[in-house]
Design a protein that fits this description.
This protein has nine helices and ten strands. With 232 residues, it is of the alpha+beta class. It has a four-stranded antiparallel β-sheet. Strands 2-7-4-5 form a four-stranded antiparallel β-sheet. A two-stranded antiparallel ribbon has the order 9-10. The chain has two domains: 144 residues, Sandwich (Jelly Rolls); 81 residues, Arc Repressor Mutant, subunit A (Orthogonal Bundle), CATH 1.10.10.
Length: 232
């Protein structure tokens, strides 16, 4: 594979693949399949039985979403290059828990279950690393669930905006230019509440509109609100 070292260097800090030892990681990436996806193309469908691969994003962006029992879309995350998605079904061979959609022209590596198991299972240190990473994720999930229960609408929207801010010199710009409906689905809020909060924050100079895009002007305020809630 071309640019193998660059691919490894670009892996997200919390990617499951970073738990692997260098040798197995290189072998796994070499045996993975490169694919191109169009904007709006669905890569993984929620409920699919064949959860036999994960997706390592190389360029572009991905939206991770589920449909609730009432038929409402809930956006769980937006993923950037270097992140791995779909690893839950890859590991347990159960149906897909979410839908993965390209939010722009994207390039990815498809990591098959069999390739992953064949490569990793022969290296005890990689197995231990995976177990520790999975345990860390359970702890993190517990913290997220607890904070979501206690945060009101403002902090929840602030958390969504902070997570979407471009961290590569974007100066408060949001990745993927989400609509208010998408922001609501991401923050767990009704679109009407998102619209009201955005209007209030715009009047206060916290955010601004540039055409259809939102730009965060007071990054420090939103970061404090996202971390400490209404006590910020």
């Amino acid at each position: 594979m071309d640019n193998l070292e660059e691919t490894i260097a670009s892996l997200a800090p919390e990617s499951l693949l970073r738990a692997l030892e260098p040798g197995p990681l290189e072998a796994l990436l070499k045996r993975s399949t490169r694919r191109e996806f169009k904007s709006g193309e669905v890569i993984i469908h929620q409920g699919d039985e064949a959860g036999d691969f994960a997706v390592l994003l190389l360029s572009g962006g991905l939206k991770i979403s589920i449909v609730s029992a009432s038929g409402r879309e809930i956006i769980l995350n937006y993923c950037s290059p270097g992140e791995l998605v779909g690893e839950i079904a890859m590991l347990d061979s159960h149906p897909r828990t979410a839908t993965v959609t390209a939010v722009g022209p994207s390039t990815a590596l498809l990591v098959s279950t069999q390739t992953f198991l064949d490569t990793v299972s022969v290296d005890p240190l990689s197995v231990v690393g995976l177990m520790r990473e999975l345990a860390r994720r359970v702890r993190q999930l517990n913290l997220v669930i607890e904070s979501d229960r206690t945060f009101s609408m403002g902090p929840r929207l602030a958390r969504a905006l902070v997570r979407l801010m471009d961290q590569t010199g974007g100066e408060g710009r949001l990745r993927y230019n989400p609509s208010q409906s998408d922001l609501g689905a991401f923050a767990g809020l009704a679109r009407e509440n998102v619209s009201r909060l955005i209007s209030e924050w715009e009047e206060q100079g916290i955010i601004a509109r540039e055409g259809r895009a939102l730009v965060v002007r007071d990054i420090e305020y939103l970061e404090l609100l996202a971390e400490f809630g209404d006590e910020a």
